[in-house]
Amino acid sequence: MEQLVKELVATLGAWLPAPHAALFAGLGEGSSFSGAGLWRVEHRDAIYVLRRWPAAATSQRLDEIIRLQRHLAAANLAVAAPLALADSPEKFVHTHFGANAEFWTLSPWLAGVADYWTYPRAARLKSALRTLADVHLAASSHAPPDANGGPRTARSPALQKRADRLAALQAGDLAELKSYVTRGPASLTRELAFHALAHSERALPRLSHESHRWREESLPLQWVLRDVWHDHLLFTEDRVTGVLDFGAVAVDSPAGDVARLLGSLVGDDEAAWQLGLDAYASRRQLAPDELAAARFFDASGTLLSAMNWVHWLYRDSSSLGPNVDLPAAHRRLERLVSRLRSLASV
Questions:
Q1: Does 49 share its domain with 185?
Q2: Does a structural domain hold residue 29?
């Protein structure tokens, strides 16, 4: 612990004077499943978040993420853009070279709590979807890294990957996952995994068939968040005051974000889905094919997320890291199984 504090103080000094005066508190250990390290930093009269990025991060990838964050923050959205280094105002990442390169960023603290599930109100749902639409509108003017600026229409990379993954599950991966779960120790989580496999097996033929269309469908593409869900939206009363975690951003269809957020917040509540879609449309219209894509994003994402958790829990736990919070993982899988049950009955 003493060595960690020394490392945090030394790292903080890349941005702030007198870093030894700061107070540190760990955030999200065992609950983010991202491999990142997060610390709340109190320094003088301000609060920050210090982030150590996952080992898989690269300087090029961080540059993409930070440029988008700064673009959105400049549009007065509830996004915390990383701060510039004290001695390099054009740089935002501190790199520590040890056995492996480590990348660190420091961002302002955003007020609010990710507590929609505790206080699910219509006003909050509307605020969430309007905020997402505002993020998409602002992001549409941010040039993709592989195009000459602005949004474009093409096949969705995410939907192509999902079609491939569904096909692989149908071709034998699902049966292989079942064999790993069967060999696991008896537990409530293993029973939950068996339920996930059974529901997925029933839903898989229909979704795999539908994926043929979405593999080839052209959709509007632009920068999107890709991991916008309950825990990444902060609320102050009924207003969104923070959008967190840009680690998964990429150029893809905004329909994927709409599906990810609505599925996370309201599950299979059709009336709430419509309320959220209407709120989103009050800022940014979704074309009919985007609306249809959102439904497939949601259904396929539910099944594939459940299978990912089964994979991580029973076949390869390396993605979860050594300090995984197993009760939290169980709760995540439990929510997915509840939705799979409805999906399998269609």
A1: no
A2: yes
Structurally, how many domains does the chain consist of? 2
Indicate whether 116 belongs to any domain: no
Question: CA–CA separation, 320 vs 180, rounded Å?
Answer: 17
Distance CA 240, CA 263 (A): 18
Tell me how crowded residue 56 is: count the other CB atoms within 10 A of its CB: 9
Domain range enclosing 255: 122-344
H-helix segments, the chain: 2-12, 59-74, 122-139, 157-168, 174-183, 188-216, 254-266, 270-281, 288-314, 326-344
**pTM to 2 decimals?**
0.93
Please indicate, yes or no, whether residues 65 and 97 belong to a single structural domain of this protein: yes
- Assess whether 218 and 248 both reside in one domain: yes
User: What is the predicted pLDDT for the residue at 51?
Assistant: 95
φ/ψ of 105, rounded to 5, equals: -135, 155
- Of 21, 82, 20, 72, give the one whose Cα is nearest residue 50: 82
- Interatomic CA distance for residues 211 and 310, integer angstroms: 22
Residue 309 sits in a domain whose CATH number is 3.90.1200.10
The C-alpha atoms of residue 83 and residue 69 are separated, in whole angstroms, by 11
Give the whole-angstrom CA distance, residue 14 versus residue 94: 7
138: its two tokens: 């602002």
* Contact residues for 277 (Cβ-Cβ < 8 A; gap 6+): 129, 258, 262, 286, 291, 294
- Strands 218-224, 152-155: parallel, antiparallel or unpaired by DSSP? antiparallel
Neighbours of 136 (CB within 10 A): 22
Which is it for the CA torsion 173, 268, 138, 222, positive or negative?
Answer: positive
CA distance 329 to 316: 14
pLDDT tens-digit profile of 71-126?
999 999 999 999 999 999 999 999 987 667 899 999 999 999 999 999 999 999 99
Measure CA of the first residue to CA of the last residue in the chain; give whole Å: 52
Least Cα distance to 110 among 190, 49, 50 occurs for 49
pLDDT tens-digit map of 196-214: 999 999 999 999 999 999 9
Residues 256 and 297 sit within 8 Å (Cβ to Cβ) = yes
Number of other residues whose CB lies within 10 A of the CB of residue 32: 20
